[in-house]
Q: What sequence folds into this?
């Protein structure tokens, strides 16, 4: 029985990991073949919809091990969430690309040290808000502006969500810097599961506020 519970937890992670790698492969090919900042930014775009689909699939796994269908859930989440995920992910990629180019060419552009620190802070806050918004958009149906407002609200109102999400992002950054992007990709489904875990207070709050009362228009992703 214990082995079955372990398998029920590991199997979805493995399947989602394989599908994550498959869906971000076109962007990875661009990153490997070409070394230009614009191409690097374009290559990062598929990560948003893939991560959103992974969040949806892992959140939707049933308790019954005999009813596990992570691949079907992943592709359903990808189809439902791709556009909403890109609306969040594309601006984040653009902001990070501008910040990265500015920092890489700081001396040539004459950017002062204090401005570099401000750029890093902007990138960190933008990433925190965007990733939180991506979790919301992956699981619930809201207007894009409302997704961002909810993300900002819960980051401010639920410090545990903000600290947990920041810890997951810092761990991902550490893996990338100390090891490589390839290692981060191989652990992507585990990081998606960690994002879901630290976002549970936010998910519960949204469910209680918008889904439980009768007659509400906002719904959970089917």
A:
């Amino acid at each position: 029985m214990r082995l079955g519970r372990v398998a029920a937890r590991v199997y979805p992670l493995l399947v989602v990991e394989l599908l994550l790698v498959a869906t971000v492969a076109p962007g990875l090919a661009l990153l490997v073949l070409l070394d230009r900042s614009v191409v690097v930014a374009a290559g990062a775009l598929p990560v948003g919809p893939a991560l959103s689909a992974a969040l949806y699939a892992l959140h939707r796994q049933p308790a019954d091990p005999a009813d596990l269908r992570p691949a079907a859930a992943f592709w359903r989440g990808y189809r439902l969430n791709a556009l909403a995920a890109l609306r969040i992910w594309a601006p984040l990629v653009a902001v990070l690309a501008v910040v990265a180019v500015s920092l890489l060419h700081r001396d040539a552009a004459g950017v002062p040290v204090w401005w570099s620190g401000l750029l890093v802070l902007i990138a960190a806050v933008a990433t925190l808000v965007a990733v939180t918004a991506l979790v919301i958009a992956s699981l619930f149906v809201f207007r894009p502006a409302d997704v961002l407002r909810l993300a900002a609200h819960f980051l401010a109102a639920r410090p545990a969500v903000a600290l947990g999400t920041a810890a997951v992002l810092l761990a991902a950054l550490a893996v990338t810097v100390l090891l490589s992007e390839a290692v981060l990709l191989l652990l992507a489904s585990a990081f998606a599961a960690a994002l879901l875990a630290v976002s549970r207070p936010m998910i519960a709050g949204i469910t209680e506020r918008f889904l439980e009362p009768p007659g509400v228009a906002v719904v959970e992703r089917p």
About this structure: The first helix runs from residue 2 to 33. The longest strand covers residues 140-141. The chain has one domain: 2-220.
